[in-house]
Amino acid sequence: MARTAIISDIHANYHALSAVIEDVRAMQCTDLVCLGDVVGYNAYPAECLDYVRELNCPVVKGNHDEEVVTPSNARMNPIARKAMDWTRSQLDEPRLRWLSRLQYQRIVRTDTGVSFSIVHSSLDHPKAWNYIINASDASNNFPRQFSHLCFHGHTHTPKVFVWDGQHAAEDDESLHPLYLSGFTEFQPLPDLKYFINVGSVGQPRDSDPRASYGIYDSDLNLVIIKRVEYDIAAAQEAIERAGLPEYLAERLEKGI
Ligand code: ZN
After folding, report:
1. I need a labelling partner for 192 at 20 to 30 A (CA). Which of 34, 99, 164, 234 fits?
2. pLDDT tens track for 64-113
3. What phi-psi label fits residue 243: left (phi over 0), alpha (psi between -120 and 50 degrees) or beta?
């Protein structure tokens, strides 16, 4: 059996991460992968990093994971920058080294021999941190996607893009139930490629404040995206206690 949980954009939100991992266990997942941005924004960077490390799963690098190790001055808004500087002060050398060694993209092979790709932003220029928002953005990814399925994050918004060999399109149908009930599942068709954004564990931005993650069951050919309630108030209090910008606490309850 191969049932892989796909988590992304944890962003140092320990309360969201532990709620999601509890759900992953309840959903009887056998494997786990992490699509990066383990740190940044929220108040538990070291705790989340250690948690993910202990899970001993494939992890790819996100832009916050890179920025905390190699500061670049240009790429972040002032709030993200402030959180980033604070995050850096919370991480010791071994933790920074672990982040620095993460790969940008990986092929993951399940126990039953099915392979899929993982990347934080997109496969065409994984180090450029492009935001894949619409089908036109996604059309640049597919020529570099050699697997049936690729999972990504970065925009903090669940989305499914499909490719028929010539055109990319957004698959709204598959996500419609997610917005109604917080749960969706679909069976990928064999003759299409899928580029699937599983949303964010620690800072969702699609107006649903619940943590988001994905499951790929390769035996059943099933992709699931679901939302998980967590203790948002506790995550907000921790942000306040750490002296991080207030907006970072506000946005959690709004899901923006
Ligand atoms: Zn992120």
Report:
1. 34
2. 999 999 988 666 788 988 999 999 999 999 999 999 999 999 999 988 88
3. left
